[in-house]
């Protein structure tokens, strides 16, 4: 009963008396509070779940994103422009965490869904769709990834390492003119916010050099001017739980810095 009351009280704190109009939750906040009344009774009280309020939605549960049931797993996202070493560092990080006794998994975006395959075709063959449609494909692919991979792993208490996540959608499609705040809201309606996001910061020029050294020609997402704008947007996202690391550093040095920051979040030494 205590947990139920806390959920309901939190709903009132966010939505006021229940008669406020809200563009995300519909005409009547009272409807939202009614749903919270129902789901609040269903949640187990205790440390495995935390209530995280959000104007964009209380995530994890109902399809409308009314509440956020946050399991005790830890979500870490590695972000940055192409060539910054995200895949290498994600693999190293998961290995180092496992060596310290953590149950760590890595998921990469785009995923293996039909939406992800269509995006990979765009990478290979060049952009033939609008930025808005591109963003929609990323979001739908991510929705599946959250449902089938990310959410179950977090519920199981694992450390989930993301090789790209929704900050990439905000930066890459934002650089094409889409509103980054709207992209963020659309993603956070269903995708859990990371406990820590590490932006592997690298100049567009160094990125281009690495890309050309690793393959014959860049894909449609890897033009230098475009990557420069993407990098600028990534840097604009920085806050207390979204921080940069120097991706120009040696692989081992960068890996040690990433591990240090992640261990500060998950605990351990």
How does this model look, in words?
With 269 residues, this protein is of the alpha/beta class. The chain has 2 domains: 69 residues, no CATH class; 193 residues, Rossmann fold (3-Layer(aba) Sandwich). Strands 4-5-3-6-7 form a 5-stranded parallel β-sheet, with helices on both faces.
Task: Put the structure in a nutshell.
The protein is α/β, with parallel strands linked by helices and about 270 residues long.
**Beta-strand residue fraction:** 5-15%
Q: Give the full name of the CATH homologous superfamily of the largest domain.
A: P-loop containing nucleotide triphosphate hydrolases
- Computed over alpha carbons, the radius of gyration is 20 Å
Helix percent band: 40-55%
CATH class of the largest domain: Alpha Beta
**Can you tell me the number of structural domains?**
2
Spans where pLDDT lies below 50 across 5 or more residues:
1-69
String of helices and strands: HHEEEHEHHEHHEHHEH
Largest sheet: 5 strands, parallel
Structural class: alpha/beta
The total strand number stands at 7
Residue-averaged pLDDT: 79
Tally the helices: what do you get? 10
Terminal CA distance? 38 Å
What CATH architecture label of the largest domain applies? 3-Layer(aba) Sandwich
Q: Which strand order does the major sheet show? A: 4-5-3-6-7
Shape type: globular
What's the CATH topology label of the largest domain? Rossmann fold
């Amino acid at each position: 009963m205590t947990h139920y009351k806390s959920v309901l009280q939190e709903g009132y704190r966010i939505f006021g008396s229940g008669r406020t109009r809200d563009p995300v939750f519909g005409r009547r906040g009272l409807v939202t509070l009614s749903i919270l009344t129902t789901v609040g009774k269903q949640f187990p009280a205790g440390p495995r779940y935390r209530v995280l309020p959000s104007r964009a939605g209380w995530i994890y549960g109902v399809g409308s994103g009314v509440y956020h049931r946050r399991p005790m797993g830890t979500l870490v996202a590695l972000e940055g422009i192409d060539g910054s070493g995200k895949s290498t560092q994600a693999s190293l990080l998961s290995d180092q965490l496992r060596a310290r006794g953590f149950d760590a998994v890595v998921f990469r975006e785009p995923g293996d869904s039909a939406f992800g395959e269509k995006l990979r075709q765009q990478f290979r063959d060049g952009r033939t769709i609008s930025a808005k449609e591109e963003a929609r494909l990323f979001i739908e692919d991510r929705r599946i990834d959250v449902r089938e991979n990310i959410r179950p792993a977090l519920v199981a208490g694992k450390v989930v390492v993301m090789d790209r996540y929704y900050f990439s959608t905000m930066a890459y499609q934002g650089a094409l003119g889409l509103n980054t705040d709207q992209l963020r809201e659309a993603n956070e309606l269903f995708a859990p916010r990371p406990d820590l996001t590490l932006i592997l910061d690298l100049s567009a020029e160094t990125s281009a050099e690495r890309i050309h050294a690793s393959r014959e020609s860049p894909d449609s997402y890897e033009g230098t001017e475009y990557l420069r704008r993407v990098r600028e947007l990534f840097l604009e996202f920085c806050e207390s739980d979204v921080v940069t690391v120097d991706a120009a550093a040696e692989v081992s040095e960068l890996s040690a810095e990433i591990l240090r920051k992640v261990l500060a979040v998950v605990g351990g030494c």
